[in-house]
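Researcher: I'm preparing a figure for a lab meeting and need a structural model of a single chain. I don't have an experimental structure, so a prediction will have to do for now. The sequence is pasted below. Please return the structure as tokens so I can convert it later.
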Amino acid sequence: MATPIPVNKARFTIAEIVAATRGTVARPGPARSAPAVSVSSDSRSVPEGGIFVALKGEAHDGHAFLVPACKRGIAVAIVERGRAAAADDPSADAVTFVEVDDTLVALGDLARAHLEAWRAGAHDRKVVAITGSAGKTTTKELTAALFGAIGKTHYTAGNLNNRVGVPFVVLGIGDEHRFAVLEMGMSLPGELDAITSFARPDIAVVTNVGVAHSEGVGGPDGVMHEKGAVYRALHDSGVAIVNADDERASRAAAGTRAKTVVTFGTAGNAAYRIVRREPRGQSGSRVVLATPGRELSVDLPLPGEAAAIDLTAALAAQETASGVLLPAETIESELATVELVGRATIKRLGDDIVVLDDTYNANPASMRVALSTLAEIAGERRRVAVLGEMKELGTHAESEHVALGDAIAGAGVALAIGCGGLISRALERASALGVTCVATASTEEATREAVARVRPSDAVLVKGSRSVGAERAVAALIETWPGATKSESSGSA
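Model: Understood. Here is the structure written out token by token.
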């Protein structure tokens, strides 16, 4: 489910808009002494006196909604060259139309100008960029929580991590904020280069590099190059936070201009390293971390080794950016506030059934993390997995699904139910390894099978790529076994 674009209070004069976007005033409106306030691409919610950016997408063209936007009393409309005349309505006479070559690029230009103005307001303001094939949302939430203990922190909401979402997150940064933590995703070649061109970070983290979104970018090495954009965007005084356990992530950092490189993970040479971890089932784990300045022991309320590794990355970013060593009790207090909607959230149902809701998305790395987390929280419970296929893997799609069958069996799954598509290849492999498997043709059929086959005291993982809609299986399980208590986030990607 798409995250709504948040309202912002970014302020721009006409001159500032023209300078930032390299645009041209095509239809001047009334002279304005006050800046226009709030940038939006939604004609239904753009406020009076705001700036409407007419974005063009696959399904909608914002230029078709210029008149409704003008009728809401906007001050400025940013349109493609030659499109200012599209607003044929008397309400448009009160609007200044700025024409640009590309409205999506112009949106990023406004974000860049806003970010530069914010940075200039104080010397200690920092931007952290976080990307990766798996774990970037968990790492973003942990990082934002730690920074929040030091100063007001603005961070990405939901899934606003693409070329449209990130500009609006940036435009939401206010003078009250000291830090900005930006999650950045990639599904197309050059997408991260485009994002970092307007949201240049001071600190960059790549959680890991896998085959997620490898379709169209040349496989894992192509993903490595694309993810490396956050490192390439760093200035020489920036900091590259690098996964010491991930060879491709390390190679992705090779092109950075940053003079400071800080490593994290489980490797013995990592600057921020997990010394040991004591799993505590559904309650998380006790993690002992070695850092450059100390050894630290904290309770992490997120089960799974992957969540602990994400914590090392978050701590590395926070300490190197701020220079502040938070006490363990402060860290624990901040970690307790982290919520991960749809990302390995533990739901306790009636009849002592535990559901691991990881329906937000799926790729090979995050599937393995989720299966490992299922094994950790299940204990002696029977392990059930309701799985959908993994999308956007290109030529690696079939082989990665077959390999997933080994991970299903390795996690001790007793019953695996497939939602159709290539996940059937994973089930074929898992079945050959002794797992009871039920392959269906759709998520609806898989949901019916899950409701019929899940038993009291089971631990159930539900996961699949976004388009699979596996959250419907979670909803059906909750409806069948009501009495769920408050959900808890477990922190896998």
